[in-house]
Amino acid sequence: MIEMNHRLRRLYNEPNREDIIYFLETSQKDELNALYSFADQIRKQYVGDAVHLRAIIEFSNYCRCGCLYCGINRANTRVQRYRISREEIVSIAADAYKSGYRTVVLQSGEDPTYSIDDYIYIIRKIKKLGDIAITLACGEKEEEEYFYFYSAGADRYLLKHETSDPILYDRLNPGMSLENRIKCLKTLKRIGYQTGSGIMIGLPGQTIESIADDILFFLEMDIDMIGCGPFIPHPDTPLKDSPVGSEELTYRVLAINRIVTRNTLLPATTALSTINEHEGRKLALMRGANVVMPNVTPLKYRQLYEIYPNKKRIEVSSTDMIRDLETQFHQIGRYISHSPGDRYQEDPYIANGHC
Ligand code: SAH
User: Fold this and answer.
1) Structural domain boundaries of the chain?
2) Whole-angstrom Cα distance, residue 161 to residue 145?
3) Which fold has domain 32-342?
4) Distance CA 255, CA 226 (A)
5) In terms of Cα–Cα distance, which of 275, 215, 278 is closest to 21?
6) From the alpha carbon of 107, which atom of ligand 1 is closest?
7) Could you give the CA distance from residue 221 to residue 250 in angstroms, rounded to a whole number?
8) Which residues' Cβ are closer than 6 Å to ligand 1?
9) What is the pLDDT of residues 21-80, one digit of tens each?
10) What is the pLDDT, as a whole number, of residue 317?
């Protein structure tokens, strides 16, 4: 026990590869429980009990990339492709705002059909709705485009690096490079975006050591939002016969991310709720997570945005969804945040008059 507490404290004070690997691998139940409860305490200390909601709008499933794991990759001819018009995107965002969401995430495949002007139109219209943050998750773009979107009002950008193992990255993402992905992340940060990254857990060929490097990468890059979900094989992709990523390993990564990065935004990912529909979200929130990303894409489109199978196919009104989440959060002593939920908010310590 003393040895374990020492390790946990060292992980927190001097994050290092050896301790990260240790906690990713340990088979001791008491050590795992200590890891999870330490992560939960760090979460409470650094980001409090609020859960930030992000309304996801999946606006196009056209994609120019050929990622082997992704169900909407360009080679999948079985996908019926769709694109939501810029007016409809704004109207979906307006509905989300009315229901109480204070962040929308505009996600898509890499679809060059939307022009810079389209993005600017959409971003400006959504920002006019009120106190609402916009997160974009539309893949790799030119620096100039990232800059125009930011100038128009986009606040955040999500671009997962997927794996920090360059050989695995090359194998899974033909025609792409980890180097460019990281270059994009650096550009986004330099421009001023709150920047999100993340990985899939359980990719075929991924090692525990490379996951430790992913965690150190988040820390070194000072990534603001870190989304880590299990890999789920899609039947129409080359990885269809690979096993699903481990749920438990996903929680370990989440907990370690919380302990080493402290005040970041860590979602209970949708992929996690997909492999454990009843408990996934709750357990993630109890092991370091402070963000939930409900999907508000109209069902007729959502069922076509199939990155991985078994995404929920039920249309629930936004208001009912929020009410339901509120009940779930209350059961574990948490509440819904009513602010856009930036990484750096007023420091609760200072706000309480301690300094
Ligand atoms: N084109 C955008 C959005 C990609 S989809 C971009 O490149 O950022 C969002 C995320 O879904 C990806 O970053 C990836 O981490 C995840 N994803 C893709 N296929 C998956 C699969 N089969 N299982 C689990 N997650 C997957």
Assistant:
1) 32-342
2) 19
3) TIM Barrel (3.20.20)
4) 12
5) 215
6) 3
7) 21
8) 69-70, 107, 109-110, 137, 139, 159-160, 162, 200, 229, 231-232, 234, 271, 307-308
9) 999 999 999 999 999 999 999 999 999 999 999 999 999 999 999 999 999 999 999 999
10) 85
